[in-house]
Amino acid sequence: MSRPVILTCALTGVLTDPEVHNVPVTPEQMADHAEEAWNAGATIVHLHFRDQEPGMGRMPSWDAQVAKDISDAIRARCPKLLQNFSTGVMGKDISGPVACLEAGRPELAALNAGTLNYLKKRSTPEWAWPPMVFANPVEKIEQFIAAMNRLNIIPECECFDTGIVRSVKMFQEMGMLHDPVHLSLVMGVASGMPADPDWLPLLVREMPKGAIWQTIGIGRQEVWALHRRAAELGGHVRTGLEDTFYLPNGEKTGSNGALVAALAQTVRQTGNDVATIDQTRALLGLPAIA
To answer: Would the pTM of this model clear 0.70, i.e. be above it?
Structure first.
């Protein structure tokens, strides 16, 4: 039997140069790309915020006013579209991400659920960037969960490695997370899980019972087979210019709408349906809208 599969679009990440790649930065650009994604079938947009100063659009921003301006612009353009804010911050201080959550009040927010050595190397024996630790100790995770609970925001546990998936199950068993647990498998980061569909059945087995989960595929053409397998196994799927610039045929794109349209086609090819906004809200446990 077919089932509704939720499509999320990650409109823009961080550090990608908007002068080189067509990634949105300003509130108007973010709203334009969000509308494209909505029209192509996405019911959730995942949002990073960038510095709005001229020439600084590569850098992340935790300015609450920037977050509110972007969130408001998207809501004005697509009032039914659900929003998911990034909270990925280096270090212990979470005041910036929490201020953005308070200002924008998204329905969901990413909860980085474990620590990762964030590494990438060049084709030569050189690091693409200095090795860094993306530290997310339990006490930091607990602080984020408390803030999200206070603001009635659904935590979406981002898992970059297998041990993080298993940790989420322990968080649930410890009473830190409410059922159903929302979980994202971030696959394709060089020092994390590969974007390999064969990993999915084992990862699903390690999830909390009844988890609502999706794949986030980082890479090129290989991500599309991953999303197809996720839809077949009961998961949901995410694409967007944060995750990939490449369509299934290998063509490079600067369009979030084109990526979402390709993802919708991938889902339908598995015999499943693209979730409507009403179906998405029901699956996430959000109240129906008039």
So the answer is: yes
